[in-house]
Design brief:
Elements lengths: L3 H20 L2 H7 L5 H21 L3 H22 L8 E4 L2 E7 L2 E3 L1 H20 L8 H25 L3 H17 L4 H20 L2 H12 L3 H7 L1 H13 L24 H34 L3 H25 L17 H28 L1
Antiparallel strand pairs: 1-2, 2-3
Helix pairs in contact: 1-3, 1-12, 1-14, 3-14, 4-5, 5-7, 5-13, 5-14, 6-7, 7-8, 7-13, 11-12, 12-13, 13-14
């Protein structure tokens, strides 16, 4: 038996995201001359594929399929990310100089969403083989052990943060990797050193890109009410939409800020649009659902005996948690906007399918726990 509460809660968020993709895409539909159900149908297809993946993966034996799936995801999408800067505009769509999407006819794929899962699967498998058996080691040996992973992270950051100009995903992957390092026994000195290097790298990635510096400036200006409307249009409208929703909301379909005042409201700002139409109560539901999903994933991690499965489950929970947290803090003006999707809720087939795939792998592992329980009885 799979973890039914985890599956059911994930489907609940997928359904909520599907509804909001229809309601919040009004302006985009009018602007591009599309049919009313354009975004809804595309999201529905992604949701169906996601649910199918969760059910299919949950039936597989992780001892047989975990490593092949993880290796394939990591290598295939690493090669894709490496090749994207070299591909033509006909194949790789560029927005603002960033090549993040691969065009396959009428469908676009965001490779980084799938790469994150392969990255965590590969790192979990590799760390258990290289670090866990060594026990307590010196700082020098620790540095030698972790250097290959730092190199992999550096290459990933170069591909994602520099070539694709996606700092948010880099932060998510880096933060998740640091926690996994702690879980396999890295010392506090080594962790502190990595944290300092990470902060320095984060600052370097900001100051070397004018659009990121501008985003930081706009974030600081958001604290100045006189400059708010002029310099922080997105944050200002996001906060106004949240305020306008109140506790119960204006009603589904009755949002005003989705009508061109808040761009990308069905993607990066889906929580703001949901807050305006369905109120604070809807955000409470979403937050509790997301916390429950993360709790169930960590609970599965705590019960599994295989350390590879343990690290992977924790990694998936952290990917979801960091993504949700970064988006939530950004749309509320607490931190600069990173343009990162809300797992299961934001419009986008790649995000929906990749998030569902990660849950499917966790469900596959949860079935292994159930089998172990039966063997012990």
């Amino acid at each position: 038996m799979i973890d039914k509460p985890l599956f059911a809660t994930t489907v609940l968020l997928l359904v909520i995201g599907l509804i909001m993709s229809y309601s919040l895409s009004t302006f985009a539909v009018i602007q591009h001359g599309l049919t009313d159900t354009h975004f809804f149908i595309r999201q529905l297809i992604a949701v169906i594929i996601g649910i199918f993946l969760m059910i299919s993966l949950s039936k597989l034996d992780p001892d047989r399929w975990f490593k092949p799936i993880g290796t394939a995801l990591f290598l295939i999408f690493l090669i894709v990310l490496l090749s994207m800067p070299l591909l033509s505009e006909n194949l790789v769509r560029s927005v603002g100089g960033a090549k993040r999407w691969i065009n396959l006819g009428s469908v676009s794929i965001t490779p980084v969403e799938f790469y994150k899962i392969g990255f965590i699967m590969f790192i979990s498998w590799s760390l258990v083989r290289t670090r866990l058996p060594k026990g307590k080691i010196s700082l020098g040996e620790e540095i030698k052990t972790f250097i290959p992973y730092i190199i992999i992270l550096f290459i990933s950051s170069l591909l994602i943060a520099v070539f694709q100009k996606d700092l948010g995903q880099t932060v998510v992957i880096s933060a998740t990797l640091l926690v996994l390092f702690l879980l396999v026994g890295s010392s506090f000195r080594f962790f502190s050193m990595l944290f300092a290097i990470g902060i320095a790298g984060f600052v370097l990635l900001i100051i070397t890109q004018p659009h990121r510096l501008k985003r930081i400036q706009e974030w600081f200006l958001s604290f100045d009410n006189e400059s708010n409307r002029l310099e922080t249009y997105q944050i200002s409208n996001s906060l106004d939409a949240i305020s306008h929703g109140g506790f119960w909301g204006q009603g589904i379909g009755n949002g005003q800020y989705k009508l061109g005042f808040l761009s990308e409201v069905h993607t990066d700002f889906v929580l703001s649009g949901m807050m305006e139409e369905l109120g604070f109560i809807s955000i409470l539901v979403v937050v509790f659902a997301m916390l429950f999903i993360i709790f169930r994933i960590f609970k599965i991690a705590g019960k599994v005996e295989n350390p590879v499965y343990y690290l992977f489950c924790v990694g998936v929970g952290l990917l979801l948690a960091f993504s949700f947290l970064i988006n939530s803090l950004g749309i509320s003006g607490i931190t600069p906007i990173k343009g990162i999707a809300v797992p299961f809720l934001s419009y986008g087939g790649s995000q929906i399918i990749a998030s569902s795939l990660s849950i499917g792998l966790v469900l596959m592992i949860s079935k292994k726990i159930t089998n172990r329980k039966k063997d012990n009885q």
